[in-house]
Amino acid sequence: MELKINNQNKQFSLESLTIQALLDLEIPEKQNGIAVAINNTVIPKTNWNSHQINEIDDILIISATQGG
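and the corresponding structure tokens:
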């Protein structure tokens, strides 16, 4: 499966992924303070385990930062 994540194409050997499975592969160490949008729609964290990703999806993973 080829996915576009943060404007970069990435290849995965899995045929099916949920948002949570993708995050476990991509950023296993830092999953607090992030938001995920698929095709310009923010997906609530409560749906990450059930929301299936399609090969044509445009995925954006945003990390919150502190600062002033």
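(Above: one complete record from the training split.) The CA atoms of residues 36 and 44 lie 8 Å apart.
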